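Hey all, quick one. A colleague (J.T.) asked me to put the magnesium ion job into the tracker so the inputs and the structure tokens live in one place instead of scattered across chat threads. No bug as far as I know, just bookkeeping. Sequence used:
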Amino acid sequence: MVILRGRKIKKVFGKKSNTQEVLKDIDIEVREGEFVGIMGPSGSGKTTLLNVLASIDKVTSGIIEINNNNLQKMKEQKLSKFRREQLGFIFQDYNLLDTLTVKENIYLPLSVGKTPKTVSEKKIKEITDLLGINDILNKYPSEISGGQKQRTSAARALVGNPSIVFADEPTGALDSKSATALLSNLEKINKEKKVTIMMVTHDSVAASFCSRVLFLKDGQIYSELYKGDKDRKQFFQEIMNTQGVLSGDGYDA
Amino acid sequence: MVMAMTLNQLVLRSMRKNIKSYYLYVFALVFSVSLYYSFVTLQYNPAIVNEIGTGRSSAALKAASYLLLFIVTFFVLYANKLFMNRRSKEIGLYQLVGMSKSLVARLIAIENIILWFSAIVIGVLVGLLTSRIFVMILLKIVEKDAFVELSFSIEALMMTVVVFSVLLLIVILQTAIRIKRVTLLALITTTAVADERVKKFNAFQMFLGFVGLISIGYGYYLSTTILDNLNVTPNVLLFKMVSILALTVGGTYFVFRFSVALILNFVRKSKKGLMSIQDVLSLSTIMHRMKANAMSLTTITVLSASTLAILTFTYISYYSADSVAMEAVPYDYIMYEDTGFELVEEFDKEGIQYTRYDIDLLAVPADVRPLLVKEAALNKTISTELGVQVVSLKAIQNKLPNLHLQEGEGYILGYNSLSAENIRIEAQKSIQFNTSAGEEEIFIKEVTEDLLLPNYHYYGFTVVVADSYFQKLLHDPLTKNQKVVGMELKEENQLIKAQEVFEANKVSVEMPIPGNDLATNTVSVESQENYRLNMLDSLGMTIFISGFLGLAFLIATGSILYFKQMSEADEEKGTYNILRKMGFTTNEIMSGIRRKQLFNFGFPLIIGLAHSYFAVKSGWVLFGTELVAPLLITMGVYIVLYSIFSILSAGYYRKVVEDAL
Ligand SMILES: Nc1ncnc2c1ncn2[C@@H]1O[C@H](COP(=O)(O)OP(=O)(O)OP(=O)(O)O)[C@@H](O)[C@H]1O
Ligand SMILES: [Mg+2]
């Protein structure tokens, strides 16, 4: 089942004389339970694409549907509600609230709905057990490591059982060990809970955890790779090759 | 001069880019300049000089202008501090790109000079207009009609320029020192340092939180007892007042610093990590900022509470002018035997309608020794033989309809604090009249301060007696009768005409002082309206000045709260961005912010109101006779002002939240 469908997505920044077309008529489809990676050189429009798909930013033209809801037809109020109930976000710079403890941060997405307290407690326990952060629940973000922050951010994205999770370079600030741990967790959640994930990354290793990788260049989808039955090593090699072709002279910095 | 050129260009460019964060600072400057200029101008306004006279009132204006200077300094320095906080990142950036500290300091100095001089020009122009309004208000308070011209005073301008140049110099120095001292790292992270977190609470802090609440309560309790015992030495009174002040001010700080965070932390703990979005935006942010905000919130609360109390006191005296005049001159016009009858004739001639009351006032020699309170009776040095004024119940029954007296009973009027200082008497005892028939005892049922009749004897008071007994005294050769005529106008609207007639027929007469045949008192025909206007004349300036300064203060403190909220909103933009991305709507976020605002404005407001209420309650009797209306009106003004500021800041928050995504 197709969960996300984008048609002729165009995004233009700037006004009249000084415009820049960042996304050029992109068509995209994501099926339920997929783990999609988005790669591409810096400035190619990855973050922009993720933002418009996640309804954080508006498209200039084109149609985006998630679970058969047309995002362009929704008003701000309804869109917010939709975002809160159906989508989850993991950001590169964690975006945790400094004044809240880890647990309070994770509870945020549940705080508005009518989830009973006991159910909330259960959900928080489940997800923090899975991500291995249940012993830091009462700490503040300033008291935990970058990897723990990122896992907190992931727990917050996942706790509300979203249909899709959007992640923008979730491993960007992590060392390779923490990065691998987080990615295995995401992979596990993707497989076990059938959560659809879209992840922007610069890192070929990270991308090799995905089931499909899209390559973006100059605002267009340049090519895509399916993992299929390949193991991670083979897939990684394939990604590296494509990237080499894509950037020609040593890819993006 | 190549460097200077680029420097100026840089300043102009950065100014143009930052215009939004300037507008508040400029507003604060313009407000201060125009307030100061227009107030100083008053001293030189011809309408004031002519109508109210120089001398005393210009001294009062001068003294007030120093107070205003204090307010303005406080306000401007604070605004500058917030302004600099807001720009710490920008300043850090300048240094990051390689500018030296002295260059940055010069940059900010040039910028300040430009801002201040534009503010002075605008402020003086605004002040020119507002000063005219102030003069009109002042003349309205003292009920005088005069044409008010738009007057430009060079002296006032000079003073304003000097004062603000000095302030500018201070600001520039302060900024330079600040830039010099602070490290680059600290500059860039200033905002992060500000919200230091409340760590685990220890028992000591909890204890201090309780101490805060208790000392405020005890201070309030003391304030209600301060006037209970009037015959304490001034030292004791002063000590009491200082302790009340220390208890309430200290208590306020403790409440802000410890109690609030304590209570909020408790509430937060009880949620066990499951906080609603409203709690997140109110509880946790307030808690985290309390340490940094405690001092300024205390200052604002205490300052506005004292301002409010002073405002109420002056307003009480103003508001009480009518009733005080009514007590001092109980009829619209009062005249005496053989005097002022031209006035009656003139009133008749002019067709002024009045009701006439003829009252016999008897001067009776008396001894008040039996009436004295016990301790005072022991003091033999005071003479207790004096003349009292006696009136029959019938003559004043219209003023005291519920009073009933038997023969041998009396009721004392006009026993005021002045007489109390010399002769302290109490009711349920007897006074001795010295008549031809010997000494006669009159049992006093009650002693009151009511001044229903004019009182012409320094330490005397008026004894009301039963009609039959009064007739006996009237025919006693040892007493002296002074006939008094009181006139009440029937038509309010004839007052102006009556006043004109009164002014044209002023007469005074020598009245014998009872018990002393040689001495006399000069008394004139008296007019209640005249008395009231005289009172307004002497009070008007005080009322105007305290009203002016009070409002200036309230606006200044309110604006500071508003400015603080604006910078808080800017600092929390990141939080709103995250929440918006996660799918919280502007309205959901705003509902949390509104709760926070309710606290940020409501809490100082309520504590300020409570402080001023107890201050006013403890001392209002010294200022007038009316409490409720003046208290409610000044408190209402305060509440309205703070509500306006909280609405403004909520509007700013909404804009920040909307722009956050
Ligand atoms: N708000 C904006 N206004 C104007 N231009 C923008 C805005 N956001 C992004 N751009 C431009 O759009 C282009 C794509 O930006 P985007 O952030 O999507 O790149 P990216 O692929 O995520 O790059 P990176 O890998 O460095 O994060 C860039 O050239 C950028 O300058
Ligand atoms: Mg990006």
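Adding what we noticed when we looked at it: Chain A has two domains: 1-30+53-73, 75-203. The first strand of chain A starts at residue 2 and ends at 13.
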